[in-house]
Design goal:
Elements (H helix, E strand, L loop, with lengths): L5 H35 L10 H8 L4 H28 L5 H15 L3 H17 L10 H10 L8 H16 L15 H5 L9 H28 L1
Helix pairs in contact: 1-2, 1-7, 3-9, 4-5, 5-9, 6-7, 7-9
């Protein structure tokens, strides 16, 4: 049986710790790349995304590949990942009314009523986001997101931090102020859609983007609920 001295054991433990730290730093850098690429294509960081998927997105240089990959990811096996996502939303600690509305959005999606689905999902997003604001009368969603991002230190990383950064970028695009006399944005814009000015042809992937945005928020809700329980 191999016997190691105390110094040898300490050296091994130090080497393992260093390797683990390097792996975390590498994954953190990959998440930075992923968040940037997803934001460009109008996505938040998906809660369903596994390490393989993160590495796949981080290491492709073709932005078009991201949408193709996520379409495959969420629609393969009869939309199984999308179904898991919707079930995750309904199992999360959000208001029952928002769960019911999410279920109705899913029914609309299944019946290919994509405009109905997307419009209603905006209400779900705003309803969940409002819970993160100290001022429950505050309806400025961009301000809510930016305040959450500002709570994280500039160094160090957590999944929550990356989700909030991706969400902040997503909300800024969704709520981008628009001149209704100008051309409509190429992606879903909250103001154009809810004020009845949109000619945007909403498809299933636009709805999946919004379902994903809801699920990203629900993941944060779950984490913060657990943190609150552990403190009490």
């Amino acid at each position: 049986m191999l016997e190691l001295t105390k110094e040898q054991m300490e050296a091994i433990q130090k080497a393992i710790s260093k390797k683990a730290e390097e792996s975390v730093q590498e994954f953190d850098k990959e998440l930075d790349v992923v968040v940037s690429k997803l934001s460009t294509e109008g996505w938040t960081l998906p809660a369903e995304l596994n390490i393989y998927a993160v590495k796949t997105i981080a290491n492709t240089n073709k932005l078009d590949d991201i949408n193709a990959f996520l379409k495959w990811f969420f629609t393969t096996e009869d939309f199984q990942k999308t179904k898991d996502m919707v079930n995750g939303i309904k199992a999360s600690p959000i208001k029952e009314g928002l769960k019911n509305l999410t279920d109705q959005c899913w029914q609309a999606f299944q019946n290919k009523l994509y405009a109905v689905c997307a419009t209603s999902l905006l209400s779900v997003i705003e309803g969940i986001l409002s819970e993160f604001s100290d001022d429950k009368q505050d309806v400025r969603m961009m301000k809510v997101c930016q305040k959450k991002v500002d709570t994280f230190p500039s160094t160090g990383s957590t999944i929550q931090k990356h989700v909030w950064i991706s969400y902040n970028n997503f909300i800024r695009n969704l709520y981008q102020k628009s001149d209704f006399s100008a051309d409509e944005p190429e992606t879903i814009n909250r103001h154009w859609l809810l004020h009845g000015r949109s000619d945007f042809e909403i498809d299933e992937m636009d709805c999946i983007r919004l379902f994903n945005a809801v699920q990203s928020l629900c993941m944060i809700v779950k984490v913060e609920a657990k943190e609150t329980q552990s403190e009490n």
